[in-house]
Amino acid sequence: MVLDRYAALALALPLALAAGAQSITLVAPGNVPIAGNEFIVKRGAYVAPGAGGAGMLFNFNSLTSTATNTYKWEAPADLPNGAQFPSAQFALTNAGPDTVFYKATADGIERVGDTQTILIPTFSAEYHFAAPYANNVLELKLPLTYNGTWSDPFDGTFTVDGQSASRTGAIVGNADAWGNLVLPGGMDTVEVLRVRTRLTETISITGIPFPINHVRNVSAFIPLWGKFPVFRTVSDSLSAPIIDQNYAYTEWLDPSAVGIASIHADPFNVRVFPNPVSEIAEVAFNGMQRAATLEVVDMRGATVLRKALGTSGNAPAVERIDVSQWDAGVYQVILTDAKGSRSARRFIVAR
């Protein structure tokens, strides 16, 4: 599936090998989104993110999804409201009515504005509007490692249904935990840094005699080179005398989309030895009854190797890959047969 492939590309993740001794560090450009990436995200009921600390194991294996969304990092120029956010470098969409626009700076990833929808039942009205910031929101400080913190005030003015409006507030963030995470339905762990943010803002609209208060809490579990959290919990509320709009949910990437083993989705039992590898990687997999394709992609999304495979019957098979000329970094090997069955495994090329 193309979307699965892009999920693997956009979110290429390292194995939790020798890194258990200390926190990973999120950096630019590794953790900065790239326009063109898209990936499948599962959604389920809100769960508590758990306690913070060092060397934690976050096991969310038992969660079940109630919905599936496709998230995309897109070029602002390709979007209907992109011109209203001239400084934006990339935008996050998920087929819903709202879009968030960002840019990368020396401080990290900043939200430069968004399109929003506010439903006011008392007026039987739904307002959809574009709201840029005059002073942007630093949503993710980079570089960031365990115990790192930041705070950032923001403000902006915009128009809602012909009426002038403003918003002011602040975001505070901290990297309060690191360790390994087991995704719902998965078996392997992903090494992550947990970043918690709390955004509070006051929205004032001409003609409405009271402010609207907005609070958003996010606990995001982010891997090295991840362009989107592999797992996050979100609670979001808009409150005023005539409005009470609340959302609370959990989102995560499908295990097959990040190249880790899933209980239900690893038909070929792909393994890579050694891992990390510097010269020759051996890709081992179960016997195959149908022709297949072996593909290797790098963390930028580029295909570095594609090879057609024949059938191997019931016998296990091994393909040898020369990586001696490849750049150091994280790669994914993806095995897909003629019927669409698919296994993926990530590995590291070290120098």
Write the layout of secondary structure elements.
Elements: H1 2-10, E1 38-44, E2 53-59, E3 67-74, E4 90-93, E5 100-104, E6 108-120, E7 125-141, E8 149-160, E9 163-182, E10 190-205, E11 212-222, E12 231-240, E13 243-253, E14 271-273, E15 280-285, E16 292-298, E17 303-309, E18 317-322, E19 329-337, E20 342-349
Parallel strand pairs: 2-9
Antiparallel strand pairs: 1-3, 1-13, 3-4, 4-5, 5-6, 6-7, 8-9, 9-10, 10-11, 11-12, 12-13, 14-15, 15-18, 16-17, 16-19, 19-20
Quick recap:
By secondary structure, the protein is mainly β. The protein contains 1 helix and 20 strands.
Word description of this protein:
The protein is an all-beta fold and 351 residues long. The protein is built from 1 helix and 20 strands. The strands form 3 sheets. Strands 1, 2, 3, 4, 5, 6, 7, 8, 9, 10, 11, 12 and 13 form a 13-stranded mixed β-sheet that branches. The radius of gyration is 22 Å and the shape is elongated.
